[in-house]
Amino acid sequence: MRCLSFRLHVFLPRALKSQVLLSNRSVKFPERLTVLSNKYKVYLETRTFMSLQKERQAPSEDELQKKLSSFEYHVLREGGTERAFTGEYWDCHKKGVYECRACGQPLFRSETKYDSGSGWPSFFAPIDEDAVKTRVDSSHGMVRTEALCSVCNSHLGHVFPDGPTPTGLRYCMNSVCLKLKEE
Ligand SMILES: [Zn+2]
């Protein structure tokens, strides 16, 4: 079942607020619609019921501030970017599952990781279609597709349409947003 979620983000320093206000009706709606103003961003998304349930178990903002380093917090919660070729995983070839560093949700398998030459860890598919959600990011004068953890809404990176087969997608992630659980 897919649900409509209405999310209001208010931009205040260190206080990214979001709230699902409507989630109990099955609706047909464009995947996302972003309305921008100076202080608010409104997102309408269709989400699976399971992902909305999981979101309720996500760590609170206070817990994340204590758990994460200031750089991890900046990238995950404030949409920052690590410099190319500096992260822990861009050149990592170990086997395992990459989890969200904020909440621990499994996001990518090492089997889908490939060398994109970008200097950031790149994958052609998430572990599960509901693990990583996307939305339009119109910051920095570009229109890009932002990738976020579906449980805790943390920023992970961006998705580009220049990946390899079978999906043709490149999930360009920040190492600092991931934690490899080796197998
Ligand atoms: Zn997460």
Mind explaining what this structure looks like?
The protein is mainly beta and 183 residues long. The chain folds into 2 domains: 1-56, no CATH class; 58-183, Peptide methionine sulfoxide reductase (Metal Binding Protein, Guanine Nucleotide Exchange Factor, Chain A), CATH 2.170.150.20. Helix content is 13%, strand content 34%. The chain is built from 3 helices and 12 strands; from the N terminus they run E-E-E-H-H-H-E-E-E-E-E-E-E-E-E. It has helices at 49-55, 61-67, 70-78, and strands at 2-10, 32-36, 40-48, 96-100, 106-109, 113-114, 122-123, 132-137, 144-149, 155-160, 170-173, 178-182. Strands 6-7-11-10-9-8 form a 6-stranded antiparallel β-sheet. The longest helix is centred in the middle third of the chain and has 9 residues, at 70-78. Residues 10-37 have low confidence and may be disordered. Residues 100, 102-103, 105, 149, 151-152, 154 line the site of zinc ion. It comes from Galdieria sulphuraria (Red alga). Its EC number is 1.8.4.12. It catalyses: L-methionyl-[protein] + [thioredoxin]-disulfide + H2O = L-methionyl-(R)-S-oxide-[protein] + [thioredoxin]-dithiol. InterPro entries: Met_Sox_Rdtase_MsrB, Met_Sox_Rdtase_MsrB_dom, Mss4-like_sf. Its cofactor is Zn(2+).
Our measurement of the CA-to-CA distance between the termini, rounded to an integer number of angstroms, reads: 33 Å
Number of strands: 12
Number of helices: 3
**Largest sheet composition:** 6 strands, antiparallel
Strand order of the largest sheet: 6-7-11-10-9-8
